[in-house]
Backbone:
């Protein structure tokens, strides 16, 4: 009897010690993470940004904060801060800009364990950037205004040059917006540089406004400020779901480009350990599926993640063989040529 009691007491002691050791390890990790801070420059929708950062903080205890900017603004900030970086992660926005940042040695390679779940076409082979979603470029139009004017929604790039659309098109500025740069690079890849720039000059005649952010044209179409916004189609779905019921989506029959929204660690950033944990989180199934909860309807890159149901209507969009690498490496030069072409 005494022997049984002794064995029981010994087992209980071992189990208790193990549990306490486990708790101690967990508590140490939590305390360690609470000492970590992270600043993120973010190029996607603000509500998406806020949701992801909140969930990341809750899961890790890391004190994270994010600043929302367009892709061009982020690039400018990174260049200005190159000798003394203030942020450690760039989260969201088309990979074209990330490729340019890599060329300028603004990114630090990091291959997350979760990158194994992401196809090669959605990530840099050296780990400079990794895709979190993809989105298709297209036309977001106001059905009510189209009906009033007796015209059809555009279904080709050439349709946008029709005189009935004069002063009725919004697109962002490719110098500040990754979305608009994707449009410019798409046109040049479809038509060649000379004809592509001629097209952009002709399109300029019908453009009412060049916006800073790539999401603005779809919103302006929903508000009835213009008939057509050139934007990523998932942004059109978002605004439609938020109450802009007059919005309709079309895509060019010649084919269209797409973005690979990405995440990267910044070269020389002050919070490398926290940055790696954040990148791991946003590449995970859980991290990627958070977007749909706040109205982001892109296609997801993690093969375990489930695409938003509302993205289904976009799956048959005709895509070109968009050359991300070329687009990224020629970004500054192409934007400069566009500026000269339209002015």
Residues:
């Amino acid at each position: 009897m005494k022997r049984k009691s002794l064995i029981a007491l010994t087992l209980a002691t071992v189990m208790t010690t193990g549990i306490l050791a486990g708790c101690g390890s967990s508590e140490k990790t939590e305390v360690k993470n609470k000492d970590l801070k992270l600043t993120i420059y973010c190029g996607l929708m603000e509500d998406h940004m806020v949701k992801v950062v909140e969930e990341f903080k809750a899961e890790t205890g890391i004190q994270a904060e994010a600043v929302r900017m367009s892709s061009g603004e982020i690039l400018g900030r990174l260049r200005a801060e190159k000798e003394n970086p203030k942020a450690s992660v760039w989260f969201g926005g088309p990979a074209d800009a990330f490729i340019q940042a890599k060329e300028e040695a603004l990114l630090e390679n990091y291959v997350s364990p979760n990158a194994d779940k992401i196809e090669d076409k959605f990530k840099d082979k050296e780990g400079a950037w990794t895709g979190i979603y993809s989105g298709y470029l297209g036309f977001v139009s106001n059905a009510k205004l189209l009906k009033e004017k007796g015209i059809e929604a555009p279904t080709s790039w050439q349709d946008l040059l029709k005189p009935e659309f004069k002063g009725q098109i919004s697109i962002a500025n490719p110098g500040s917006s990754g979305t608009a740069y994707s449009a410019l690079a798409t046109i040049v890849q479809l038509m060649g540089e000379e004809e592509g720039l001629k097209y952009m000059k002709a399109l300029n005649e019908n453009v009412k406004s060049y916006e800073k952010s790539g999401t603005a044209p779809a919103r302006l179409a929903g508000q009835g400020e213009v008939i057509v916004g050139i934007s990523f189609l998932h942004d059109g779905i978002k605004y439609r779901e938020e109450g802009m019921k007059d919005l309709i989506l079309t895509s060019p029959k010649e084919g269209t480009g797409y973005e690979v929204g990405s995440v990267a660690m910044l070269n020389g950033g002050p919070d490398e350990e926290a940055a790696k944990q954040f990148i791991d989180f946003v590449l995970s199934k859980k991290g990627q599926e958070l977007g749909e909860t706040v109205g982001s309807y892109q296609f997801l890159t993690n093969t375990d993640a489930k695409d938003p149901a509302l993205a289904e209507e976009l799956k048959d969009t005709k895509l070109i063989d968009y050359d991300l690498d070329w687009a990224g490496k020629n970004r500054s030069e192409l934007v400069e040529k566009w500026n000269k072409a339209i002015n």
The chain has 13 helices and eleven strands.
